Queue: 2 jobs
Job 1
Amino acid sequence: MQSKTSYFKKELLKQGFKSSGWIGIAYFLALLLILPLQIFMMYTEDSLDNSRNYNHIDHLFEVNSEFQLVLLFIIPVIAGIFTFRFMQVKGSADFMASLPLKRGNLFNQQFLIGYILMVVPLSVITIILLVMQGMMDVGYIYSYADISKWLLITFVYQSFIYVFTVLIGVLTGISAVQAGLSYIFLLFPAGIIALVIINLEMLLKGFYVGFFWEEEVAKYSPLLDAIQIYEDDISYLRLGVYIVLTIITYVLAKLFYQIRYVESASQALAFPKLKPIFKFGVTLCFMLLGGAYFGLMQSKLIGWILFGYLFGAFIGYLLAEMLIQKTWRVFHYWKGFLAYIGVSFIVILTVILDLYGYEGRVPEADQIESVFINNGGYSYYYREDLEESDLPTITDRETIRYVTTLHEVLADSDQTELQRRRIFKPDSVNIQFIYFLENGQKLKRKYFVPSTESMREYFQPLYESEGYKEIQESWLFEEELEVSQINIHGYEDVKEVYDDQLIEQITEAMKKDYLTASFDELNKNTYRSASLEFINSREQKHYHMPLKPSYQNTMELLESSELDDHVILEVEDLTRVAVKQGLNNRNEIYELPTMPKEQQDNWFITEGQEEMKQLLELKDKADYSGEWTIGLFGSNKHRLLTTFIVTDEQIPDFVKQYFEGQ
Amino acid sequence: MIQISNIDKNFEKEPVLQQVSLTIQKGSIYGLLGSNGAGKTTLLKTIAGIIKQDDGTCQIENQQVFENTSLKERMIFLPDALYFFSHYTVAQMAYFYQDMYPHWNQERFVQMQKALDLQVDRKIHRFSKGMQRQVAFWLALCAMPDYLILDEPFDGLDPVIRKKIKSWIIQDVAEREMTVMISSHNLREVEDICDAIGIIHRGKLLLEKDLDDLKSDIHKVQLAFKSPVEDSIFKGLNILHQEKRGSVYVCIIKGHIETIEQTLQPYNPVVFDILPLTLEEIFIYEMEGVGYAIENILL
């Protein structure tokens, strides 16, 4: 009798749901709480007071987003583990393999079970959301388009994480290892790139990979990438990439399952050939991690970094060996370790000795199309949409020459040594170079310069060049600069300017002053000076420019418009000055006016014009470190205008005498 | 017919089976003997299409077993540690078998239930070990397999159940020409039902014998002569073992009974007894012949 056989075995699927069905139910209940119920609660809350804006959201990921992410990270991994649990346990692995099913068929049926466990709850929730949209007035919370977007994104990411967990499951033989490695490898691409970058930064002077590399790198990890999904608009290209990756991973998982030995159940790795790769992979990761840890902890001393490599590699090698052997007594397997250490230290040595010529590479001026240079100012860091190709660049040949000259000096200089502990001073900079070369390539470097003052002859011509200034405050030189308001931040108050004509005058004056500002003016500590805030209210952009006494055009204009009160701090503005040595708590100075008389005696407090003048002059010489704290009080004795720190050498004798006399 | 030739299998770098070849005739019961770790289970799993050999061929009815669905539909493998889905009742498990094995015989299932007096709606994992073993055979036999591969099926069972299960197997072999392969580490457990025996040791098949041939072929001969005789009188006989207790020779001789009689009768022995050997004795002497002490392997 020829019997009828179907591809899908009803009883096999039934068994799958009997053992793993709880995942689907748990997922459904969790989603129900997180989404429809939460939206319903928002809706009833809003109905009470007829407010409609209270619970406005941009898309459905904003509803309990943390919980949604947690589910997205956990459910597919659990589904992947439990539906393929059968192959990790000896008894069931043999039993399933003895059934009259082709391996590919068995794989597909189990795969389907896990998929259904995720997709069915997701679909039911979608239907509930659709019904709610149709029956209740929740349109202001979400739209039909929001639902489809939410479903699409969740489905795509979930599918990938699930299929990836299955692939890892096929490659391993223990469910716990499967879970661990799944998460590790979902983070791995980003993690290893970040580690390599951090290590190269410690080993190579000037190493720099460019703006936003952290964000760029995060995209290579599906988990880190998923965290961003509710922040940005979805990119269909990105989803497409995930779909392709999902299909590839599925095909790989199925192929590997078909050649996987059934007897791999309860082995850490199912394919013996993976063992050396795994072992040295783990060793490499731990080595980089060890180097990064000890390097960062011990201010990048090369000895500590090398120790970190050795220590990290040792730990990594032992851990990998322990996992593979499933015992902690693995100390006699040291030959591979020695071989690894030998080879890796040769590689590291070639990097340290810079045999690849990275450190000394400064492009010739005629190879450079344009260059971007930034001295660590913040203006470029908070623009998410910014790409390197959008950066303002210097094309002027003379300025480019200043740049390469400075670069050559920095590349050679001992001052920019990377292993040194970085001590920041007011004239320290983190300077970045991005060259756009004629041949289409980019060359990027970054150096920490402890003191620009000490390298004045190279910094001055660059800092004073127009080309450099125009890209440091590129907004100011934009053709269609749009300023709707200027705030003048003085020491005592803020004045707002709305008059278009005046705004334009101030802007032009500031341009002029800035372009003619000297190296010394630019390098002067501006942290505590008055400033101008240029506001583009349409685009919600705010730009700050320090207001310096030497900015003649601007100062004159403010003076003639009677806006110059308190923008320059003069001794006449002060009522008293307080000084104390070794202040533990900086808040103490704010409490000074209300302190009892006895405690105030611990301070040197003066109201004498000459003494106040001397102390005020120290303001522009203030340092980031020093043991003397000075506080300046304004129009009335209780108003603290600013505080700063100076060193023992800077403090005038009359202050010291006061404390010696005590 | 099961035909295995030159199978090699390694777990990682450790050889588990080396150049194993054997043949099992249709409708026969083959006993695979060996100590723990000899490679019995691996060999059985290879035959059942669970494990894929590294080298050599494993064929049933001239077809490769691995990934062969139509063959596996007619074959059941029962491992030494039985596997049932957790929390499954006998009935649920039976549905599963019914779905998997197209030749499932529901009539027989009902019939055997009466004989066994087991409740089908009880969870299998609550049964005792012996009961679970019976359930496993019950389900296996109702799938009407042409090939039944049993790994240590009698281990730890009491004689009553052992006998019952043996009778089921023999019945199916007799009625439907089912082919059975049984592994065991104990000769006595299987000698009464096997037609052929193979001994595996450290991954190698040491010898393979048809039991009927064996029994008719090896003899224990006790001899005594009035006067001392030369050893040369045994010339021409295949002596596996010989010892002398006083004036009595005890010999284990391989060969036809007539040949032995014809060779020794002319010397007029006072005592001349030809005795049957137990299967165990046969193996002890056979193994001596190939250089192994059977105690190390089987007993």
Job 2
Amino acid sequence: MAQTTLSQRNRLPARLHSLLSWGLFAGGIVILLMLSQKLIALDIFPENWNIGLRDVLNEFKRWVVVNRNSHWMFTFFFEPLSAVIDFTLRRIENFLLWLPWPVVIFAVFIFAERIRGLRLAFLMVACLLPMGMFGLWEESLQTLALMVTAVIFSLVLGIPLGIWSARNDMVEKILRPILDAMQTMPAFVYLIPVLLFFGVARVPSIIATVIYALPPAIRLTSLGLRSVSDEMIEAADAFGSTEKQVLRKVQLPLALPTIMVGVNQTIMMALSIVVIAALIGAGGLGEVVLKALRRLRVGSALEAGLAIVFMAVLLDRLSAALAQIERHSIQQFRGYRLFSEKQRGIKVIAWLERGISRVYAFGVTLSVQVEKYLAKTFGPGAGWLYNRADWIVISLFLLLATILLLLLGVQDFPAALHFDISRPVDAMVQWMQVNLYNIGDSGIGTGPLRDFLIIYVFKPLRTFLTDQVPWTVVAFVFVYAAFAASGWRLMLSVLALVLSIGLIGMWPFTMDTLGQTLVAGVICVGLGIPLGIWSSKSDRADQMIRPVLDFLQTIPIFVYLVPVIMLFGTGSVAGLIASVLYAAVPVIRLTNAGIRSVDVALKESAQAFGSTWLQTLLKIEIPLALPAIMLGINQTIMMVLAMVIIAGLVGATGLGLEVYQGFANDNLGRSVEAGLAIVLCAIVIDRITQQFARKASQAANIN
Amino acid sequence: MSTVQLRNIWKIFGPNPKYVYDTMDRAASRGEILSQTGHVVAVRDVSLEVARGEIFVVMGLSGSGKSTLVRCLSRLIEPTFGQVLINDVDVTAMNADDLRQLRRHTVSMVFQRFGLFPHRRVVDNVGYGLEVRGMELAERRLKAYEILQLVGLDGWEDRYPHELSGGMQQRVGLARALAVDPEIMLCDEPFSALDPLIRRDMQDELLNLQHELHKTILFITHDFHEAIKLGDRIAIMKDGAIVQVGTAQQIVAHPVDEYVREFTQDVPRTKVLTAETIMLSQEGKNALSGEAVLYNTTIEALIPRISATDALFPVVNAADEIIGVLDRHTVLMALAES
């Protein structure tokens, strides 16, 4: 009895409260709609509010161009920095191109074998060979040189900063938000100032890459050092180590695996902007992709794209293996077992395996002999030398091979081994273009689909957001969402951010982009949540979907952009489809993971009360997985926004196109304004969705 | 002639230990101080003297402050109050450099969970203390090989710690501490993480080594049997304070309170008690009839000699002077008293 009154007492105000807040929301919109009829300033964002950021920026750019050769900032800072980077890059690139191609392949092979084993070594060769066979050997090595240089500079900066922030909480506190910003900001935003200071060439692309790839190096160095156990440090202290000795002899070596994970991530981040970097003259594979894209040569774009994928696999696996390297004292050789008993029944395989084993045994015997010789010659003090006898043998062999092959004139990948896949791919795409664009003139096909989307979705939505709805109403919706998600504080900062978009004169473009983002977001969520639920319910579905998601996340966006363009032409639809392909991944993953992590006991108890499958899903699993799902939605929307620029590149209207056109027309201010608007948009949506995700997790009582 | 002297060591953990030390009620219990101030008194007014070449065991249950105490000695943990003297030099007043030199040359440490560096080969673990001193590679390797041989690990130099068994790992830990040729070794429950059988081997090993090397060893344990086996003298700690200090015989024969008695209960008294601990004064007893008994003979060894006779035995010291007497009755009474 007491309980009933209690719940009644609680229920009424709760309902009233929700009614009130919806009323407030609707009322606000109605009032704004009515007011905007009378007041034009509330209807269309007033022109004269534009603070003219682009003029200031363009003025600044003019100043830079005039003063580039005279001002101290350039002659004493940017120019020397630029020279150092250029020097490093050139040296590495020339060295790689100077090496005979078999030496490059064998060096990677043997390195992979030493740190992980033959399996990885063969994978590495399988990644390297196609680069040469597609006729992209030189471009691949250029890209590799670019990566290596960018990674070197990232580490040279990142590791000391990581050490510093591990040892100083204040530094950590200051660095954290900066690193967050560096990681969330679209690369274009800092590409532009970098361009301004360094001009178009390979140096700025390296600097942009370094900025983009630096955060994981810093973060994981700091994390690695901080997670060295106190026990180790105490042991080092107990023997009277100085602080430097503790760092160098104990902390850094123990943090090395974590630091290597950071290196791995740094490499992957760097690789992911290879194509974007090509836009500002990085050269290499990215440029091949871009050129092919501009000429709509799907075949060559695919070749270069695949070469990037292979490069990604190569660098990823190699650095991941380096991160998990195990320390073993002695070489134990038991013969290689690469194949199963069944496979070994085939003569060729058995023969191959025996051959490999013999070569390997020879290498080990040689290393052991060298080790013995060195031990005898140099005594026990030189253990550091002879413990690495295998490396000495390998280095000598590589050196000899290089000299020999150079004398024989072997350097570039031979044309005789080329294997062209661009022509058949081109032919296939042409076939698809002819046959799928409009299947049998029936009005079904990719062409009509595109037209449908443009005529019935994008155009009306854009008109609705830009012309029909007053800007104040859109702003009100965001501000109100911020208030509902968190409270006054977020509301005020969202208000400021939304106003800023208008103040830099980007309101109409932002609305266009917002509309497309909305469509892409809805499609991603609409597809992603059911797919996520399906793969959480069926292991088979999970096994099918997972590799597709991995594939979509690892290959450069540009690669699947090409077929999309071929089928849908350039424009907003191509941008939309590319965005959906790229951004649907997190919502699928997190929905799957969220539902899978719901406690089995809870599901059982729901079933014990006789819930149907659907009831369990709707009443137990989804509410409990909601925080994960909300996080997935948040990430998905952020990824859609990250794609805005690339969508602009393929002709999607809105902010992306603005950035790109500002770029193409040498109007720096325009690019910056549009880039800034993307960032502002991203921050607003990120904050609001994150707060909703937090609310959801509070409601589910999950910490 | 003591190497190590601890004078009134206090260690209080918490945000403001100095203030708490100055203001607290010295008589209050640990729990009372915790609830009043939010600070934990880990070590409470400990004074000790460890003689040169002695194995001094600090025994206590977990949380008794023994590990904190041993760390105060080389200031791995800074004592809140009190003085540590090593060879009459005040360690608590040392600057960072002098302290580092002390740790590099005079005091070394063996850890409960070995504290071996997983990224270094055995030989480089053993050579670590020499390395941070600045010794050349070849020289420190030779020294490390030598020490590894001493602890019976020759042939394992180039392995990594994880490739060794627990007992072998602690041998490396012992070798690492010995390699710097320290005067004093601090052992923080070095054998607790080992299996019982291996633990016994390691205890014997330590005694053998000590027989040759004569280090001053401060040994921490929670195992009373280990304390009795290894300790020349034993200090028993409870709630941060020392309850009783003495030889194994003194503690077993005369536990100061119930707490100590608990530990002594399941100790085989025949193996611990010696003639010296149970003998009576010689006064008024002139009818010595038995053969002289050496002062450190255990009861276990006495029983066959006295069980069949009522004779009164003289107990003699190392210089063959009579220091007391005992007979069958004395032995039986000592055994009954537990």
